[in-house]
Amino acid sequence: MADQDFAPRLHVLLARSANTAVIFRRGPSKRMATFGWDRATDEIKVGQWLKGRIYERRADLSPDGKHLIYFAFNGKRRSETGGSWTGVSRAPYLAALDLYSAMGCWEGGGLFIDDKRYWQNNRYFGDDDILRHNSGLIRDSDARPAQQFGAECTGVYYPRLLRDGWTLVERDRSDRWNKWTIFDKPLARDWVLRKIANEQVDHPPGKGCYWDYHQLRNTKSGAEIDLPDWEWAEWDRGALVWAEHGKLYRAPLPDDGALTPALIHDFSDYKFQAIKAPYETDGEDAPMSTKARKRKARKDAKREKVGRA
User: Fold this and answer.
1) Tens of pLDDT along 235-267?
2) What's the DSSP call for residue 58?
3) pTM beyond cutoff 0.85
4) Residues 216/206, Cβ–Cβ less than 8 Å
5) In this structure, what are the phi and psi dihedrals at residue 120, rounded to the nearest 5 degrees?
6) Strand 191-200 relative to strand 178-186: parallel, antiparallel, unpaired?
7) Is the Cβ–Cβ distance between 25 and 33 less than 8 Å?
8) Per-residue pLDDT tens over the stretch 156-177
């Protein structure tokens, strides 16, 4: 089935200390866009598009909502990054102020410790991967999540959920290729939002290998509401917010088992646009340091040698 038969996929990062958020929109599969969301007014604005893949489960937003860390892949081996990179940008844009090269799709991305420091998901921490460092933020080499869940998406996503108030309930890893992990978040009036995070090679059509299934459960009445179409969901300022079929919704908790959703925004009709971040220079996103240029020259030389072999 072609990409256009599926609604765009959405994933949202909520700022912990501000009324802002960044929304990732994927669709078609090799087109990604970021959006800024003012959660106080529900104003939505386009950030930037990327021809490639952003791994949204390896991304994070600083508590004040000003900076974004993400991992991306475009496969351009002869580019500055070698085809995959971790970037730190000004939200909701993608133009990297801090830029780190990567090797393929292993690891990458990270988490914010606070407004000024972040952890980069890179076990081989060093300076060889630094292409640019102009954000004024600190890459903290001593910080890493207390619980380890692997090196790829789960290694960033699951610690982010735990940090943001979710509780780990159960993990099933009996099948190497089809795993699931259950997280609960207590809400109000005895309701609990359950997130079943799947890691599947044989995933359903229209899903990625990492995808979430949601339920609402009432611990007092025993009521359960299955929400199979919710691809992302959170509890935000006394209301449920979720993404479903390329649209963002909000609703209060149900009284009688039925939700009354209000549409926040429909992301269906957007098309790729070449948008420049307001802080980008006329040349590269930001100037490379002398050391970074030398490192890039060495890597380019190695790639040329491999290409001739």
Assistant:
1) 999 999 999 999 999 999 998 778 999 999 999
2) G
3) yes
4) no
5) -100, 130
6) antiparallel
7) yes
8) 999 999 999 999 999 998 888 8
